Amino acid sequence: MGAKKNFVLDTNVLLHDYKSIHNFEENDIYIPIVVLEELDKFKKGSQDINFNAREFAREIDQIADSHLFKDGVSLGKGKGKLFIVTEESYPEELAKAFSERIPDHRILAVALNLTKKSKEKTVLITKDINLRMKAKSLGILTEDYTTDKVTNMDIFQQEYRTIDNAPVELVDSLYASNEGISVSDVDLPELGNNECFLLKSANASVMCRNNSITGKIQRVEKVRSFGIEPRNAEQAFAMNVLLDDDIKLVAITGKSGTGKTLLALAAALAKNEEYKQVLLSRPIVALGNKDLGFLPGDAAEKITPYMQPLFDNLNVIKSNVNYQGKEVRIIEEMQRDKRLVIEALAYIRGRSLGDTFFIVDEAQNLTPHEIKTIITRAGEGTKIVFTGDIQQIDSPYLDIQSNGLVYMIDRMKGQDIFAHVNLVKGERSYLSELAANLL
Predict the structure, then answer these.
(1) If we measure between CA atoms, which residue out of 107, 93, 101, 94 comes closest to residue 30?
(2) What is the pLDDT of residue 358?
(3) Angstrom distance (rounded) from CA 76 to CA 59
């Protein structure tokens, strides 16, 4: 156990994780009164930050007493104390550097005063990079909130594994068997649950998956679903886990143009008889985090600009199966009967989703708590698919290591009902692939 520290929390930490005050072990937590003022502005609304603001207010109300503002209150056995700092003297060096007393600078004042008077090391915790830079300019120790950050990012950079020098008989047996071969009967490197890989012998190669439900190595084939056929091995792997009803949770990652959402939607439509509803959703985060402003119409019309990429994928599928074909009639019937629904993610909270194929697009813009909220909506017979490009994060306080998509994949890996496929090769167009790689 290291030396005890003081941690000053910024508003964005509490909006990111309302239970964060319980994650600092034996160290003391200091919350400037301006942070409570800022949280008050976020109480109303249906987004996750609004929910977190309300939940933190309830959390602090349960532990608050008269000592909270002076002597602090204990956060429990083995934990430190929680203080609300109302004193706001503005140090001279802070006034010289940042004369305007905006909330960020008032938080810096608390951290700077505490640094001067406390024997323990004081650290400002904030997810705002600019505020961390300002703190460092004043000699204040500062860190990001890293409790839910993923450290091993290798799986998001690599394509599928290739196992060379496999016995010729093994590859031949996999081609000859539809059931697969028991993992215990083969001599292969250790495989992850539901890991997809390429097995190569001197004569041939075969796409495989370690099926954690059956305990067998099974051959993976390129399966055409609603006019969409995988164009490469990694897309074939993605389609395989998407069509497997035993896998209840799927994550498909990859850069723009790799076919993440298109494959998920095609698989969902192919499974229309197994599920009562196909639900497509995505968080409403405008490009560059800029609001589109006032939009006319009812709720459905207002969210259409944000949901348009999902409609675009639906149109691609329609064009691939011929606009007059049976599959198009199925799609139109599903939309008419509300069995195929595209809606904003904000409408999911509080619902219980049974027998639903639920696709969540742009999941890299969700927080870990939002991901948890979505998954806990799953009722019996529901399959949830998260797709996203972790390089394209529009939320200002999430990054490549702290967003909900990578957090969920990191926590769920190894579970027998979970599969993750990372798509590397772009298939949208040569121009799209070139831009994704060079720009």
Answers:
(1) 107
(2) 96
(3) 13
SS3 category, 422:
strand
* pLDDT reported for residue 166: 92
Determine how many CB atoms are found less than 10 A away from the CB of residue 59.
17
User: How confident is the model over 382-416, as pLDDT tens digits?
Assistant: 999 999 999 888 877 788 888 999 999 999 999 99
252, 260 contact by CB (below 8 A): yes
Q: Quick check: 147 and 20 in contact, CB under 8 A?
A: yes
Distance from C-alpha of 321 to C-alpha of 331, rounded to nearest angstrom = 11
At residue 340, φ and ψ (nearest 5 deg) are -125, 110
Sequential DSSP letters for 138-186:
TT-EEE---TT-----GGGT---EEE-S--HHHHHHHHH-SS-EEGGGS
For the chain, the distance separating the N- and C-terminal CA atoms, rounded to the nearest angstrom, is 45
Q: CB neighbours of 300 closer than 8 A, spacing ≥ 6?
A: 343
Percent of the chain with pLDDT over 90: 60
Dist CA 340 CA 186 (whole Å): 42
Q: Select from 170, 168, 162 the least CA-distant residue to 191.
A: 162
Q: Is this structure's pTM higher than 0.90? A: no
Assign 302 a pLDDT band (cuts: 50, 70, 90).
low
H-helix segments, 291-416: 299-320, 326-336, 368-375, 404-412
Ordered structural domains, the chain, with CATH: 5-143 (3.40.50.1010), 235-438 (3.40.50.300)
> Mind listing the pLDDT tens digit for each residue in 153-191?
777 777 899 999 999 999 999 999 889 999 988 889 999
Q: Confidence class of residue 1 from pLDDT cuts 50, 70 and 90?
A: low
CA distance 147 to 25: 12
Distance between CA 371 and CA 367 in Å, rounded?
A: 6
Tokens 């709720």 correspond to 299
Please report the pLDDT score of residue 288 as a whole number: 38
405, 378 contact by CB (below 8 A): no
Strands ordered across the beta sheet of 196-200:
161-163, 196-200, 205-211, 216-219, 181-182
- Residue environment code for 268-295, b if the CB has 16+ CB neighbours within 10 A, otherwise e: bbbbbeebebbbbbbbbbeeeeeeeeee
Chain-centre distance for alpha carbon 293: 26
Tokens standing for 256? 């723009």
CA distance readout (Å), 251 to 113, 154, 222, 306: 46, 15, 19, 21
What one-character-per-residue DSSP string does 80-93 give?
Answer: -EEEEE------HH
